[in-house]
Amino acid sequence: MDDFFNNWVVQVRKGVLEHRVLRSLAERERYAYELVREMAAAPGLGLSEGTLYPLMSRLRLNGLVASRLEESTSGPARKYYTLTPEGRQTLAAMDHFLGELNRPEGPKREGGSR
Amino acid sequence: MDDFFNNWVVQVRKGVLEHRVLRSLAERERYAYELVREMAAAPGLGLSEGTLYPLMSRLRLNGLVASRLEESTSGPARKYYTLTPEGRQTLAAMDHFLGELNRPEGPKREGGSR
DNA sequence: ACAGCTACCTTGCGTCACAAGGTACCAACT
DNA sequence: AGTTGGTACCTTGTGACGCAAGGTAGCTGT
Known about the structure:
The structure is a homodimer.
Chain A: H1 3-27, E1 30-31, H2 32-41, H3 49-61, E2 65-70, E3 78-83, H4 85-102
Antiparallel strand pairs in A: 1-3, 2-3
Helix pairs in contact in A: 1-4, 2-3
Chain A binds a DNA duplex through residues 7, 10-11, 13-14, 17, 31-34, 36, 47-51, 53-55, 57-58, 72-79.
């Protein structure tokens, strides 16, 4: 039926997810499995592990997060992720960009340069 | 430098663009070239023709827009696009979805089933 | 005739969500 | 001891799509 709409939703997630993850990590450190359940419970998202684990790898490769292993008394060890300074910087840039996007028609000129 | 951020912006566009285009067409009919310049001038977007033409094709294939050729006295003929009823419906669904996404922590339960 | 604008469309590339599948560790029941 | 079920990690293959670059064609001015 609405192939188109469903596909659109997937595309929207691509942008939103990374932002949401960084946002979440800005609050406190978390491990991936925790994030999966958190996001899956959120309104429009509903991601699975296959989405998040590669995402976390990308974040780490790009230096936005750092990870730390912690053993658990009940279950496998957890890999906790924290934001690096670059991660915080990128998050701020994202926030700014999204702010611009949501402003309906007001482009807002940059510091009146030139 | 910020490969990651730039890439992210590209991903965000994927979701935003289709919504913006439908929004724009909901106002009045437009032709593709017009949309390109309109979007390119908007804050965070900056798309090119190579992005928009395939997008318009997809919209037409999915029955969200209809097109109509109109000759121009100055230049090539223009293909004007209008929203179909399905297009309007999809736009409404998108608006709803985005509304849900932006609600910070309020999932809004579905009819309290179960 | 030629440059430049409008206006349409296509090809090749790279990125990414997602489903599905895989490994391993631990607790509880049979 | 074996099986189930939960936690927690990660990989592979597929399909979708933005984008740069390139292509076609009509009109205008020099």
